[in-house]
Write a structure and sequence with these properties.
The protein has 182 residues and is mostly helical. The protein has one domain. It has 9 helices and no strands. The longest helix has 18 residues. The chain is globular. The termini are far apart. The relative contact order is 0.10. The mean pLDDT is 84.
């Protein structure tokens, strides 16, 4: 196998990594009723696909927010953002701010959501396109005409870290820090 490229493997139908069977843990979970049977997208997590997996996980978190499943949203956000951090994907870190702001809004923390979006919109490491997108999202939020609140001095890496590690406690310490920045 090492002497052939991936395209040749797929073209010849020789894909020994593809068993054609569903993952046994997934089958057990469906049969136990833990998760409903249905269709799913499986994103391989090989080196070239981890960025896609991180992006899909962040989109899954946003979908969970819309469905009112905040625990699932926080967990998926932490997973996707953790992977984006491991890969060093700055653009996905800023994409995660949108998801985090949506989670904060769903928790009734609109002011904190605005602070997160404003931080990203003004951060020099964000691309011009990303800053514009975050500013547009910020302008669509309630309180768009209110003066911006002070930022508590948290740096980008610390903020990312706290979003990931505080997911299991609904980001309560981070929210308290953001409230203290008035």
């Amino acid at each position: 196998m090492p002497d052939r490229n991936w395209n040749e493997h797929y073209a010849s139908g020789q894909t020994p990594w593809d068993s054609g069977q569903a993952d046994s843990a997934l089958v057990a979970a469906v049969e136990a009723g833990t998760i409903p049977a249905g269709r799913a997208l499986e994103v391989a997590t090989g080196t070239g696909n981890r960025a896609v997996a991180a992006w899909v996980t962040l989109q899954t978190a946003r979908l969970a927010v819309r469905r009112g499943e905040l625990d699932a949203a926080r967990s998926a956000l932490a997973d996707g953002l953790g992977l984006a951090t491991t890969l060093g994907l700055l653009s996905l870190k800023f994409d995660a701010f949108v998801c985090f702001a949506e989670i904060l809004e769903a928790q009734g923390e609109t002011g904190c959501a605005r602070r997160i979006l404003a931080f990203g919109a003004d951060h020099p490491a964000a691309s011009a396109l990303t800053r514009d997108d975050l500013r547009q999202r910020l302008a669509q939020r309630p309180g768009a005409d209110d003066p911006p609140s002070a930022w508590p001095g948290i740096e980008l890496d610390e903020l990312i870290h706290r979003i990931v590690v505080e997911s299991h406690i609904a980001h309560a310490p981070l929210i308290a820090t953001l409230h203290g920045a008035h």
